[in-house]
Amino acid sequence: MSEKTQYTIGDLARRTGLSVKTIRYYADRGIVPPTDRSPAGYRRYGPEAVARLELVRTLRALGVDLATVRRVVAREVPLAEVAAAHAEALAVQIRVLGLRRAVLTVAARRGAGPAEMQVLHRLAQLTAHERQDLVGDFLDAVFVDPSDRPTYPGVLVSMTPDLPDEPTTEQVEAWLELAELCQDPTFRASMRRLARQHAADHDVPGLPRPDAVAVVRDAVAPALAAGVDPTGPDADPVVAAVTARYASLRDRPDDADLRQRLVERLSVANDPRRDRYLDLLSVVNGWSRGGAVTPAVDWFLQALRARMPEPAR
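RE: above sequence
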């Protein structure tokens, strides 16, 4: 090979942007061996050394370890195989980093102390099986009485979070909050009361029918959107429509007892944590968000109570 086609370490450094020290280090480990030496003993490199150093720099920038780099440039292992293995490893690292970021984000937002930080970290590290156990335990606590369990399996599925294998940070954050809600004894008790009332509203023979919350949600939505005052006269037709519809579904007269029953049903359902659970569930499962019932229930409770006689003293 002529002198014109050979490079000194200094030449390679200028062409590749790597330092002389780094190139010498790679040469000593057989990654970029010299092709010749000058009469004075200095290392000389052929044109292929430039391409090899560019590849080495790229692989190192991508996080490939030096031993693997040596095997790639020596053609002992296919580059595609190395790329696939490292891409898979990076995917795992990205997921771990995403979990850590979510935990730290939630902890910072709440001003969490050491104990809460540990709880958040533990919940983020749960396996898919452990998450299923946690949610299953929650649903068992809500539907503790077999008679309260939904007739259709789809109802339970619609209440079950399913964190994907590669969740976004938002999904992990939603899972952390949802998991804490599932373990909250007061929320479990509230949902258990709601489940029992829902079951009681469906104890009328015949086809499945909407419960009190569904009747209110559907009837109140237009009035709520229009800004109707629940205590004003414009709310009268809405209240009448709801009580008449609920009485028809229950096969009972639209009287004071039925309205009191409605108040009791809706007071239990008027827990903003239920809407929060469903909102978080939508985020975790990648469903469209919305459908909060608390505003409608709260509006109707104000409207109905304003039209009920004061209790006798």
